[in-house]
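Section 4.2 – Deliverable D4.2 (structural model, holo form)

The reporting period included a commitment to supply a predicted holo structure for the target in complex with iron/sulfur cluster. Inputs used:
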Amino acid sequence: MLLSDHSYDDYSAATPFLIALCLRAGLFCYIIIFTMKKFYVIKTFGCQMNVHESEKIAGIAEELGYFVTEDDSNADLIVFNTCCIRDTAEKKILGNIGDVKVLKKKKPSLIVAVVGCMTQQNGAAEELKKKFPFVNIVLGTSNLSELSSAIIAIENRQKKRYDHILNETMPTIDETIPVKRTSGTNAWVNIMYGCNNFCTYCIVPYVRGRERSRDFSVILDEVKSLLDEGYKEITLLGQNVDSYAYENKRFVNILEEIAKLPGKFRLRFMTSHPKDFNSAVIDVIRSCDNICNNVHLPIQSGSDRILKLMNRHYDRARYMEVLNEIKQKLPHCGITTDIMVGFPTETEEDFLDTMSLVREARFSNAFTFVYSPRRGTVAAAMEQLSPAVKKDRITRLVDLQNSITKELSLEYIGRTEEVLVEDLNPKKPGFVCGRTESGRLVNFPGVEADIGAFKQVKITTSRSAALWGETYGE
Ligand code: 5AD
Ligand code: SF4
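Output (structure tokens):
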């Protein structure tokens, strides 16, 4: 018999040997599989659009058999999903790509890919190649679907480099890219791509092309299956969601149709443009309980002269009219904004107009930026302000908005808010965090099993923008 070869004449004596053998074989197989396993890292920069695009990159990588890792030195594939909206973003990304050179030296088989907005700028791909010759793949915003074949070509050593920037202004929407969602309770859903607005400071229309809206029924089907999978929040994404247009369907139709779907969930959207945001959208939010009272409405500047130079197509009065209609019809609506300081020719008087608008509008929160010239845009050719003036203005603006956010936080104390639990509080054991309908972050006692649940939370304390509370009656 089999065991006699090993001079065991008794089965029970052979058992430990067999177990040890199996364990060794198992360990051996595990080591083989583990060492053969390929790992990927995605480094994402920029807006929610990019965060969602990275979920598509993850989908592509996993379809090719890669597993995610947090450890760069363990990676076989590193993808930089880039942003070029401001100079600061670009500098940071260039520094990060430079750091990979050391890893590539240690592991020459490492595949390095650079995709996204930065590569799509005029001449940027050529510059990247010169600066970082170790980069294997460079793809533009419109041909991300080539990433899979590019990786395969490099893996099989058919090519050392694969770069292709598609320069079409109206690229077709690729619905076939797999998505590996990473955003927990919330699922991002693109409803449109690109932008037609050409604000004079902005690079987006150049790197993302003209507006293209996704098929209405494809969006609805995607949302339905996400809700079936258990997502509790859907966030619709677009550079300018209000200009969604597919056949006879408009943005309000999407909101209405999704809001009708069964089950308990929240619907959010971003970004709205003040020239297009309208009463119809406000009325739909008011009439549908599951559409969050939360609007992101970038103002950019409080000065009519600067708004005109920015090509924003609204003035301060029109913006305040929209804002006041939201506040009147949706009294608890969280209204956030984007504001820029230091746009070319901005005078102290223009800046004071921005400050007075911020005082008047009392935004829940504001994303504040220092203007930075972007190549090829109209404003880049205008007379620029000194860094010192910009620094002084951003400091004053941030201080003002922080004090308003703090005051508005105090108004929440004593209120009971419905909060969707998103995660464990990373800093405070025994606490979870989530958002109110208006978009405010709330921390309160909870456990991992609470993630994805809607909780009634009584707000007890506030610390600048963050709120703290307690649940009761459960
Ligand atoms: N410099 C600084 N901020 C910019 N933004 C867009 N372009 C620039 C630029 N060149 C800001 C705008 C926009 C947000 C996404 O980024 O405020 O709303
Ligand atoms: Fe850029 Fe203006 Fe389009 Fe927004 S609306 S993406 S700021 S061009």
